[in-house]
Specification:
This protein is of the alpha/beta class. Helices cover 47% and strands 14% of the residues.
Length: 312
């Protein structure tokens, strides 16, 4: 991993130089601080172009804890013309690395409101083959330890007698699948917990609208799109208060926060599934930031760095 940034630079600098000579560009927009941003900043130095680096989450939340990678993150951000963070939380962590606040712009993610919108829950359940009277929770994300799907499954086991019609659908794929399947078998939840695998993004609105609740009990996050997308469908969210999630769930009318332990999650599930949520209000509050608005903010920031470079 310590060599990835330099290898990416060496593998792409010739092509970048060729593209720039054929059709000159004004700046480089790099996403993920390391290794992508590291390589981009080196290319920018070769071509005398400003580079803007965007932090997405894991690059700052996790990689900054690696002793060998941390200096390369700091070098990348210090030598970039500017940096974008998808949340205030990431911005603060970038400042801990020594990056001046004035160099960082927070540009949070948007949501595709044409795709993620309220739909009739009975109709969506019918289309998905789900029982109309079940209490359905969904958890969308890679099947990895940090997403906390195993904690949700154990919480469902604790509630199996108190909420007999509770059903959990864990949507995603990853290296943790076998462990989750073993846990489902161990807890005798084969009729209550389902792992349908990866699903096309265009199908997710059906699941969010069919669900009573969307869950994300991660140990770390940047700005998780699945939270914004669920809320845009009018679905309340049960989540851990990590990363940018508190910047999305800004009201108790949008969702609930839990600690990352089984008892807290189980209590939160029970409370959230029995609360009368105003799904129309949830959708209305959450459908205010489009991807067009995000693009305009990014473009404005890039333009400011291009103009600054031109002034010297």
């Amino acid at each position: 991993m310590p060599a990835h940034g330099m290898l990416m630079y060496l593998a792409s600098v010739r092509l970048a130089r060729q593209l720039h000579s054929e059709n000159p560009f004004e700046c480089i927009d790099a996403h993920f601080v390391y290794p992508d941003g590291f390589a981009a900043v080196r290319i920018g130095k070769q071509l005398d172009l400003p580079v803007v680096v965007s932090a997405r989450g894991t690059d700052i939340n996790l990689y900054a804890s690696f002793r060998i990678i941390r200096p390369m993150l700091r070098w990348t951000l210090s030598n970039a013309a500017g940096a974008i963070a998808v949340s205030e939380d990431l911005k603060n962590k970038m400042m801990v690395l020594g990056i001046p606040e004035k160099q960082i712009r927070v540009v949070s993610n948007g949501v595709d409101t044409e795709r993620f919108r309220p739909l009739d829950s009975k109709e969506t359940r019918k289309r998905l083959g789900l029982a109309e009277d079940d209490s359905i929770a969904v958890s969308v994300g890679s099947l990895i330890e940090s997403k906390g799907h195993h904690l949700l499954i154990e919480a469902v086991a604790k509630l199996s007698e108190r909420i007999p019609k509770l059903r959990l659908y864990v949507i995603g794929e990853g290296v943790y699948r076998s462990k989750l399947e073993e846990l489902v078998h161990e807890k005798q939840l084969r009729e209550k917990v389902f792992l349908p695998g990866n699903l096309p993004n265009e199908e997710l609105p059906l699941w969010f609208n069919a669900a009573n609740l969307s869950c994300l009990v991660s140990s770390r996050e940047g700005w998780p799109n699945v939270v914004s997308e669920a809320l845009a469908c009018g679905t309340p969210v049960l989540a851990t208060g990590v990363g940018g999630i508190p910047e999305i769930i800004t009201s108790s009318e949008l969702g609930m926060f839990v600690e990352r332990d089984v008892n807290s999650i189980a209590n939160g599930l029970e409370q959230a599934l029995t609360k009368a949520w105003n799904r129309e209000e949830i959708a209305g509050q959450s459908r205010v930031r489009s991807w067009d608005a995000v693009a305009a903010e990014v473009e404005s920031f890039l333009q400011s760095k291009i103009q600054r470079q031109s002034a010297f």
